[in-house]
Known about the structure:
alpha/beta, 2 domains
Amino acid sequence: xxxxxxxxxxxxxxxxxxxxxxxxxxxxxxxxxxxxxxxxxxxxxxxxxxxxxxxxxxxxxxxxxxxxxxxxxxxxxxxxxxxxxxxxxxxxxxxxxxxxxxxxxxxxxxxxxxxxxxxxxxxxxxxxxxxxxxxxxxxxxxxxxxxxxxxxxxxxxxxxxxxxxxxxxxxxxxxxxxxxxxxxxxxxxxxxxxxxxxxxxxxxxxxxxxxxxxxxxxxxxxxxxxxxxxxxxxxxxxxxxxxxxxxxxxxxxxxxxxxxxxxxxxxxxxxxxxxxxxxxxxxxxxxxx
Length: 289
Ligand SMILES: NC(=O)c1ccc[n+]([C@@H]2O[C@H](COP(=O)([O-])OP(=O)(O)OC[C@H]3O[C@@H](n4cnc5c(N)ncnc54)[C@H](O)[C@@H]3O)[C@@H](O)[C@H]2O)c1
């Protein structure tokens, strides 16, 4: 399949990432379906797309016609069959749980023609394992966007054990059309960015637990000492402490290497529901902000 053959993209999952990916694909001119398991989640996806775009219009940074153009290309649906009907590429952004993803891929494989390419936005799970749920392992690939997907430039293109060269090339071309920069990564736990970034955030929790410095000073040290735009705790609160913990669990389980052992403080915060900005409290408190 060539890039020019791709007219319609089905995005499965309308959460944080699925909605952002749907927006990025529509802005690049593709017809998009955005599917979730219930209408209220699809509506939530549209809200996540619409509200920031509307703010850009109010600030005079974007024309209303452009926003309307993007939204008109996205069709929200619940039935899976309707979502993938006529799509040449499926981008999956459902929960980071292997059983859920595999169940979905089995169903997708049953209802999509064999030429359709399946790309997973997984942050850390094995593309090779997901592909075993299908009969098209050569057309299953990782397409790891970063949050917020319409803004962040990078996409890690993950090659599973059986992914064909043509599939990797096609996804790289799609990335280019979306205005993204692709890096090709062989399957490995955490790929490149999360393998480097999440253990750094985890170590910040170890520093905090040892009482080496305050959260504010740890963030300040990394921002001013390494030019990071956000400190490790600001970033952890932004992405979600539970997401960071999930990635550490995968790195630790897959490698068995003690350097990837999740911080007990990070675990404690997640157990307490301190998940970051989304729950109102993580390392920092966001209630009243
Ligand atoms: N949040 C991030 O910063 C980030 C960054 C990169 C990649 N990811 C990855 O993207 C994926 C989605 O993460 P998210 O943060 O958007 O999660 P999220 O919880 O915001 O959204 C997931 C959505 O998937 C839906 N869903 C579950 N099963 C489904 C199914 N069978 N069909 C359709 N929809 C289904 C849920 O209802 C939910 O709306 C995960 O694999 C995650 O690891 C997340």
